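Need tokens for this chain, all 823 residues.
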Amino acid sequence: MTIESPTEEQIQKSIRLTMLSAASFSIWFQVCAPQQIFNIFVGTFLLPSDGALGLLVGTISAMSVFQLASIFVYRYLPRRKTFWFVMTLAHRLNGFVLAAVAFAVGRGMSREVGYAVVFIAMSVSWMLAQVSGSGWWSWMADLFPERIRSSVFGRRSAVTAVTNLVWFFTVTGILNFLDQRHVYDFFAVIFLIGGIGGVTDILLHSKLPEPSRRSAVIPAAQRLEGAFADFSVPLRDATFRRFVFSAGLALAGLSMVLPFIPTFITAERGLGARPIWMAFQFGILQLTWLLMVPVWGIMMDRFGKRAVVIIGLSYSLHWLGYLVITAANYHYMIPLISAIGGLIAPAFWEGINQWSIVLARVDQRISYVAWFWTGVGLATAVGSYAGGALLELFASVTPARIGIVILGPLQYVILISLVIVATGAVLLSRIPEPSGRHIGFVVRLMSNPNFFRTFSSMQVMSQPRDSDQVTRALRSIDSGSGEIAVDEVVARMHDPDPEVRAEAARALGRIRASEATEALILALRDLTSSVRPEAAIALGRIGDRRALPYLLDALNDPSEELQDGAAWALGEIGDDTATEQLLALFRRIRSERVSASTAAAMSRLGRFEAAWEIIPRMHETRNPILRTQLAIALGNLLGRPGEFYRLVSGSGAERSERRKRLFLDAKRGAVHLVGAEEPGLDRTSRREEITALRTAIEAARGGFEAGRPERSLLLLREAADRVVTVLGGVANLEDASVAPFFASRPRLSLWWWFLRQADELVSSAELGGNVAAAEPGGGTAVARQDSSVEALDVLLGVFFIAQYRSETAPVESMPVKRLKDTA
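Here are the structure tokens for all 823 residues:
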């Protein structure tokens, strides 16, 4: 059936059929293709020779050159499906030929003749497969959209892994206990079953729809003419050429070893293990493969193929285990080696195919696929030939032992192959992938301890689960591993449950994924949305400046909760316009919650002019929590952001201890405030000023601990006047001549200005006396501030001295503006 474009229903049905066909394919592939069981049959029972096995496997791989013929075939034919069906059906009949050979050899036919028949049959079979194979890849690429393609192939691989596991264990388990007189009959039976499985796979494919191709409406003569033009298109693509060469080099290195490991394990010239150990090796490999295939598939879909493929190539390092394996330790070394390989190998084997499809031009996909399989097939053939030849060459070399390392024929080949694989990996890392992430990012993400927890949460979020389960899953998403789950979290922004939507917005903020910006902006702009405050905060965490105009609009919303969230977000990503809007909001709003968040936002932006508004509000508010929050905002301007918070939080004992250390740090910091870089002071004068400042700090500490912070505040103000007078070289601090000094020391000038303002506000409050005012809950309040505001003033003044090291680039500071205004 040919269709214009597959519907979602057809795609889902095709996925189900593809999974069934994958199981049938596995039954055939595991015994009728050059895999472990076939290699054991040829290399152990048919013609025991590494050279003969390498020649056969290499020749099968070399048949990939016939992929190039498919460019002309598929360009000429209006449909891919029919030709692929006929050719591949004939290809799968090789199982019946293998069954006949095994049956005949078991009854006296020469093994050399049997090898020759197998050699010819497998070569012809794989030639047919290669002529038609690119059509299947093109067909599947058109049938399954790229957004799900890697995941579909990952699921297909998982089905293959399960079938392989059951089938391989069954075959090797029986082979392990089988009388050698019946071994050829047994191989005949499993080859026959494999052939049936291969034919069933093709019949299931007959039910899959084939998306139509534009070339189908072109006259046949023109299509054939176009095939000659298409033939060389991939060769003119420099990126694709580099990719095929690099991938081919890596595959050549892998093929030098892979075909010969089964015979090394079971043959007497190797470990001499019973065939059941091949089942253990394969079973562990497939189980770990099964676990990791979905993970690697999603990683490719989300972060690109390149990084995943390169990580996957590192699986070849598990072969180093064969350098220390012996007949005495293979009982635990084989499982260990297999587990390591199974965890990482799917990344390469699944990824390299998907990467080749991504690099192919959509209108030239068959040509690209054909050249890719031709290149890697020839490289695999060279690797297999070379591996067999090297094993034959090293067969006469006496194995050497260096400590626990054993160097025999296979081990020498492994070391050579690892160098070749590493070279291929380096070259692949240089292939551009515009939408792909760097390998370091993928490694960091997957090495996060919470990665697999996040992956598990993704499964919950992508399925119809109870809202409480989804909410818990969203809460488990963190910044370290959450980027893998962005799509699932964004989808939950439209959940009918408001708590799920809110938790999804919070999770996106924790992840800080810029790709979620648009979804969050939509939620922020939706006047009916209940998660606008959460969306605003999430946008602030992400830091994408595209959100700025919408956050500025949110400042004018009547909702205090939204104003609070928008103010916080602007403190993370704001600009000059945001500062002006925040200042305007701070002036007009009387909400204590919004006042605190606005002040904090302006302080995080490092805008000193915010202090003009924060200082008076801090001294006039009756709310001790708001007063402390405003003091923290000032602390962010005077010193390192977040440090002052530690002085006003925690238990009483801890707070007291930190404040004691603060005064000591300030005395040590005096040398930085009156530092060596001051050109106007000689050494004696500088020492005198440092001593005077330390004396003032000690006196302020005494007043503070005695419960007289107003006295300490006055001492600090006088000390600040003296520092500015001496360092600025002026007698009158109200004179405009001090402006250049203030401009060069914006943070110091803020400190000086703050202490003057604070002292004046405290003094005016004292002069005003006590004025009672009705409280909402009864009782009285005092207009004059209690000692806590003076205590905060003192802590801020000392905090600046303790934190001061050097100034930022000169800016127009607040005292400079004041002097200009006065003038």
